[in-house]
Amino acid sequence: MPLRDTPAIVLGHGGGGAMSAELVRHLFLPGYGSAGAPGELGDCAVLEIGGTRLAFSTDGFVVKPMFFPGGSIGDLAVNGTVNDLAMSGATPLHLSAAFILQEGTALAELGRIAEAMGAAARAAGVRLVTGDTKVVDNGSGDGVYVTTAGIGVVPEGVDIRPGRAAPGDAILISGDLGAHGVAVLSCREGLTFGTEVRSDTAPLHGLVAAMLATGADVHVLRDPTRGGVAAALNEIAKAAGVGVELTERDLPVPGEVADACNLLGLDPLQVANEGKLVAFVPEPHAEQVLEAMRAHAYGKGARKIGTCVPDHPGMVVARTALGGTRVISMPIGEQLPRIC
Amino acid sequence: MKYLDEFSDPDLAARLIDQIHAVTTRPWAMMEVCGGQTHSIIRHGIDQLLPDDVEMIHGPGCPVCVTPLEVIDKALAIAARPEVIFCSFGDMLRVPGSGQDLFGVKSAGGDVRVVYSPMDALKLARQNPDRQVVFFGIGFETTAPANAMTVHQARRLGVTNFSLLVSHVLVPPAIAAIMESPRCRVQAFLAAGHVCSVMGTREYPPLAHKYGVPIVVTGFEPLDILEGIRQTITLLEQGRAEVRNAYPRAVRDEGNPAAMAMLRDVFEVTDRTWRGIGEIPGSGWRLSSRYREFDAELRFDVGGLRTAESPLCRSGEVLQGLLKPHECAAFGKQCTPRTPLGATMVSSEGACAAYYAYRLVTHS
């Protein structure tokens, strides 16, 4: 029995944390056997084809509600795949889109989603070149599910992947944390926090290009979506066998996100972002990369949040504002709001 | 919500920590009763900043952790029924029963929903008149008023398809039970601020007097906790078994009279089994006879359940402060938040989960 504690899929298997990783490691990969990917398994594969290095990625989108402050499932479907490609340093080029629609879904709603996808694709400079549509019985689905896949080209000399994180790297974040997760949650649960939190959904390949243009040897890029910064950093620490040390005071968590998380008993580090990236860059290059990030529209709030260290390999540790330390662990499955 | 930042100011915290070091002349062991305080202490690393001689013992004040297995199994049985919409706070969903958890029931087709307030469950009941809506009403004196109000409203509005699965527990009898234990090492208590904001502080002087322990009503932000600890050590050093309120911005001595009146109307005191600890006389609330028709246990026939705790789990000793989480042989091995053997590993307020999530030593 490869998956220890549940005989069936539970929500946590889609949470982007430890349970999702186990499903891949213990069910999908053994099932694929020799047809599975060799080496590192990430959100994006880089394949050398005819002398060109192609980045290839796919992502499914099931967000509820489909429209939320700052965006919609259409924006996410384009930006999510664009960003997965961008995190390998690639220039995204072409996307596919497959729809699974529930019987009864309003055409007007689907139209709004299609328009949002078109607008997001134009903004990102990519084309939607192929697709598919399926319809399931009323009650078998939940409105609209979108799966996109995308390809892009990785520039010569660029090698960005989790395994390259190295002790001495500065860890940078491109801006404020937690906005997307809180925007969707507050919309879903009808919660308000005085000010409206808007999703940060955005395409990040332009920001990545600006970072690479500095000539810095960027080791790792990651967009901390599901599972948040906690999951992203834990995966990187594990993949590279390095430790991560964060300074809690340097984490940019906006007041309204912190308030919402406090109220619900959530950790802002585990909340999803859709328009932010984490970068591992050799410390001597950090300042110039930060400068380039801050000059870009999607990196204005860029700052250093920590350091990659040789100690405690595979683990992420934060120094608390009070001077203590705590481990930032890999989220397990779904985040559970606390009772009191 | 600016007040939250103000109560975690690092400079003020450093000053309080200095004062605590200055006032401490010998070893002391105190218990923070509430799981929210445990979480905050470990999350901010507060215990690492205290004098080596000051030990924080983590108490049983995590409602998710102490809800008895039998009640969890009843919840699982009720939630699996096709006519039921079962509503719960989020962190109850992964608490293991004898066989599975509520996530498992949901995955098998049960209609299990996370709500943020019992009133949301009542709303669901009104929207779904052909279904039975059950709310899992657990927790200490803190969560009880909202549950009481919901049942009260259900009756006022004539909503007959709503019921409450109740397993409320009370802090003062738990403090007494801990002090009566022959292995007790607790010399003082940080009382749970939010419980006192409902119930006031008047239940505590008799306990302080009877057991000779200082009791300091304490809040949850880092500065609140440090101030509670500072006042507690000051009382201990002076040999004074008295009650102090270190959380006056939320707690009045008389508590919240409106909430208490509602509680008296809807609930009555009953004996209650605490998971891992056992039965404590007069330590819980159940629906009073006036509201018995809203009791889910009576509405659904869920008798004859056989419960089985993991033989490896020592959460009972953890909840009584007799064992630190990482001293348990199963900690981090058979028992992780991913595969919890006991509820203390599930709730973010559970001592085992807090240690697992935030402590380096325990992983390496």
UniProtKB/TrEMBL annotation, chain B:
GO MF annotation: an example: carbon monoxide binding
A Pfam family assignment: HypD
Keyword vocabulary terms for this entry: Iron, Metal-binding
Keyword Metal-binding among record annotations: yes
Domain of life the protein comes from: Bacteria
Gene Ontology terms: biological process: protein maturation
Keyword hit for Iron: yes
Family per similarity comment: Belongs to the HypD family.
Classification via PANTHER family: HYDROGENASE MATURATION FACTOR HYPD, HYDROGENASE PROTEIN ASSEMBLY PROTEIN HYPD
Protein name: Hydrogenase formation protein HypD
Organism, as annotated: Actinoplanes aureus
